[in-house]
UniProtKB/TrEMBL annotation:
S-adenosyl-L-methionine binds at R45, G64, D85, L129. One of its GO terms (biological process) is methylation. This is Ubiquinone biosynthesis O-methyltransferase. It comes from Modicisalibacter zincidurans. It comes from the Bacteria. One of its GO terms (molecular function) is methyltransferase activity. Keywords: Methyltransferase, S-adenosyl-L-methionine, Transferase, Ubiquinone biosynthesis.
Length: 243
């Protein structure tokens, strides 16, 4: 790809979002840090993905992988995982951690759109979790994910719904009352309704197969999958129809 085209594709990035995660990256694998919620939801989302896509032996692309919490867990389940992110420091942390944990993954600093140009249709499974709400044009990332998956393959997204309850719980509750996340982690305007995400998916040829909420109980301090409650955090499972 020529440099101008690359710059255009890298246009779908908010530098302040990348900087935010780079500043926190050294604590990515500390289960009591700002990344505690990601550590706590990881077994739930890993099982959700594995049960539907069967990770062992699959070529998996993890878009917006950060420090590699999900990427590594999928590699431990036997997947051949490539993790991509535009943050340099989270990727350094991910590479260091994989050495400690003894699994092999390929981490690359590249955008989903660039990757889609390079390797269309090459992945059995594409995951893009907790990332869409941090980019200026999430529909473009959805299109890239759809290009990257092979016909018959699976794509998983997770993000946060946009409604007053999501504002109250994901921003006021999580950032200001319970301090589960640093203030400013999320911008309400970037939250995405399931209907919007479904529309973007269908426009690419992806079939939306299932969605499930991920709820937090502040009394027991536990998360669980809630198939009928997508009012705040939710996951979406899609598959690419064969032509
Ligand atoms: C909340 S973290 C989620 C990390 C990981 N997906 C997970 O769920 O464990 C969001 C990640 O998205 C990355 N990110 C933000 N904008 C991006 C972009 N335009 N392209 C690639 N990655 C991006 C950040 O660097 C950060 O690592």
């Amino acid at each position: 790809m020529n440099p101008a085209a690359r710059d255009t594709q890298r246009g779908n990035v908010d530098p302040s979002e990348i900087a935010k995660f780079e500043a926190l990256a050294s604590r990515w694998w500390d289960p009591d840090s700002e990344f505690k919620p990601l550590h706590e939801i990881n077994p739930l989302r890993l099982d959700f993905i594995d049960a539907r896509a069967g990770l062992a032996g699959k070529r998996v692309l993890d878009v917006g992988c950060g420090g590699g919490i999900l990427s590594e867990a999928m590699a431990h389940r036997g997947a051949k995982v490539t993790g991509i992110d535009l943050g340099a420091t989270p990727l350094e942390v991910a590479r260091l951690h994989q050495q400690e944990s003894g699994v092999t993954l390929d981490y690359r600093q590249v955008s989903a759109e660039e990757m889609a140009d390079e390797q269309p249709g090459e992945f059995d499974v594409v995951t893009c979790l907790e990332m869409l709400e941090h980019v200026p044009d999430p529909a473009a990332v959805v299109r890239a994910c759809a290009t990257l998956v092979r016909p018959g393959g699976h794509v998983f997204f997770s993000t946060i719904n946009r409604n007053p309850k999501a504002y109250a719980l994901a921003i006021i509750g999580a950032e200001y009352v319970l301090s589960l996340l640093p203030r400013g982690t999320h911008d309400y305007r970037k939250f995405i309704r399931p209907s919007e995400l479904s529309t973007w998916c269908r426009a690419t040829g992806l079939r939306v197969r299932e969605q499930s909420g991920l709820t937090y109980n502040p009394l027991t301090r536990t998360y669980r999958l809630a198939p009928r409650d997508v009012s705040v955090n939710y996951m979406m499972h899609c598959s690419m129809e064969a032509p």
